[in-house]
Every structure is written in C-alpha cells, then in structure tokens.
Amino acid sequence: MSVRGIPAPSLYSPQLYWEDRAQRFAGEGDGLAAVCAYGMPEFYNRAIHLEQRLALEPWLKVVRGARVLDVGCGVGRWSRLLATRGAVVTGIDLSPTMIAQAQRRAATEGVADRCRFEVQDLSNLNLRGQFDRVLGVTVLQHILDPAALRRALLAMTAHLAPGGRMILLEAAPAAAVNRCDSTVFKARRRDVYLDLVHSCDLELRALTGVDPAPFRTQLLPYVRRLPRSLSWSLLGLVTALSLPLDALCGRWAVKRSWHVVFVLEHRGGGR
Length: 271
Fold this sequence. Notes:
Blueprint: E1 2-3, E2 6-7, H1 14-25, H2 32-35, H3 42-56, E3 67-71, H4 77-84, E4 88-93, H5 96-108, E5 115-119, E6 131-137, H6 146-158, E7 160-171, H7 190-199, E8 202-209, H8 215-219, H9 228-249, E9 259-266
Parallel strand pairs: 3-4, 3-6, 4-5, 6-7
Antiparallel strand pairs: 1-2, 7-9, 8-9
Helix pairs in contact: 3-9
C-alpha cells in the first residue's frame, strides 16, 4: 500500500521502515495510522481497529496477574487494554519510537506499573521467562523472509508457558490472493500458516474470522492510482458497506474472511 500517495519502498528494511512509520504517525491521535493501514484516513483505520477488537475479544479475557507477551506491540493498544484487565504485559517492537509512544500512553492511562516495553526483533527474541498468553496482531504478515518467519514463531512458542495460549491475527485468505501484496506485506494462504504452526509443535484450538466483506480488498490495489478525493470517497463507501457485515458475521464467516484469528496451544498441552 502507500503512505499518503507515496508507494511502499522498493527495498524493505524492517527496522528503518517501522521507525519511519512510527515517526510519521505514532504520535497522531490513537496512533492507528502507524499500526493499521498506513496513510489511510482516520475513519478507515478506526473501522479496522474495531473489527480487530471484535474478532479478538473472546481471546482477550484474562485473569488478574496473567503474564502476557504482546509482540509487535506498536503504540501498545492491546498491551494497555490487557493491563486494564489486570494482566502484567510485556510489549516488544522493532521501533524505538513505537516503544516510547507505548510507554507514554500507558503512563497516561495509569497502567504503566503493569506494562513493560522493550525494543526487540521478534525473529531474535531474547526475554526471560514464559507467558500465559502470547499475542501477535498483523505482525507475521510483515516478516517476508521464510527463515525469519519461522524463527519468529519458534521464539514465540518458546516463550509460551505450558497450558498457555498464543493468539495470532493475520492476513491469511483461504485461497491465494496476492493483489494487495507489496514489498512490506504478504497475505500468505491460510494453509501456509497452518503448516508452519504444526512444524513449530503448536496445535490449532480455534480459527475464527475477522473481515469477510470483500469490498476493501477489491478496492485497495487501485486506491493509489485514483485522485485522492475520489479514492477517499470510495474508501468511505466500502468502509460503510463492510463494517456492519464484518461486525455481525466476521467471527463465523471464516472461509470468506481475509484476516483470521489463530488460537494455538503447545501440542499435547506442553507437557
């Protein structure tokens, strides 16, 4: 996709890309332009955030004191939510600016004592201890190198406590669809993730949908080619059409959903 009319970089350096993105947008409003759809209007990113929240809600119920690892935490939107529910959260991100914003926002919301944020690369994760919940929201889809992707999932698995759950929300269509792929993003087929999960000694416990309405994914490849006034008007229309359908049917329309939530546990309970 594009950044306010600027195409995705021809060469993708994750550290540079995410730090630049954070410096542009992480301090604006809720920081959604830094962590949702880059450069899109606020209404569009708020709709995405709401759809993600609805899809994740059944899996974000935690007991007080639960240890949570939030990978690719960005500005800490999920870390802060879980901290308000009593969890003790560690958030990691590649970008120092994202981490600084997460810390600032946690302090503003009064949950800094239950949040710890660190600059770390998920593919080379180095943390002490294990966690009852490991959460990743639209993170793996930006790790393009297959070897780095596998290292990332293995690192998350190693930090998942026995009996704990890993929750992943990723672009994972049921059939191959590459019309939205770019130098910074890849929508891998769902079975690719399922094979990877199995190879990392994880077991799928649940698979739920997020956004079955097809309108946005059909429009997005053409947005940058259109005049801004026209493209944003069309984005407003497809958002208005998509949101009710995704909100009402998202979790259950798994086969048609562009993104899905994977709920994973150690195979055999981790014993």
